[in-house]
User: Which sequence fits this backbone?
């Protein structure tokens, strides 16, 4: 497993990606997927830019990783995201069999964040596979500060 300094390094990249989302008028969220030390994919929130409700940063990173791997099974991979995943992204993360999820800020409202977190960690959630290890609050202040930078 990565060290706290490695988590911070990758979360800083998520913050850079989140800043790209701000420029295009989207919610400031950035995400990336690693397999060991290999960067597999990155995702920038693009809901407004693409007029696609599913174009969350985590979903974009999952799509790219699956395409590059030619597999939807991402067992052993770690997903970093500047904001805790929503319910949709949390379920997709479970389906992709991501092994570790590292989060910066909590979700926009506590209800939303708690529900997304439960989808990530509840063993009763289909597809009834072991949930990923979830590491929270990495560079939380820096990630939360992005919310005040959001345009439109």
Assistant:
């Amino acid at each position: 497993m990565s060290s706290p300094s490695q988590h911070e390094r990758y979360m800083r990249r998520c913050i850079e990606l989140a800043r790209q989302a701000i420029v295009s008028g989207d919610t400031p969220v950035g995400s990336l997927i690693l397999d060991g030390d290999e960067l597999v994919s990155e995702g920038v929130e693009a809901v407004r830019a693409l007029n696609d409700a599913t174009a969350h940063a985590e979903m974009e990173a999952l799509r790219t990783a699956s395409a590059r791997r030619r597999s939807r099974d991402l067992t052993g991979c770690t997903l970093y995201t500047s904001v805790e995943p929503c319910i949709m992204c949390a379920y997709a993360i479970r389906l992709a069999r991501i092994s570790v999820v590292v989060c910066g800020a909590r979700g926009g409202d506590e209800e939303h964040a708690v529900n997304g977190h439960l989808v990530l960690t509840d063993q009763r959630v289909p597809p009834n596979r072991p949930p990923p290890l979830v590491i929270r609050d990495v560079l939380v202040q820096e990630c939360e500060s992005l919310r005040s930078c959001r345009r439109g």
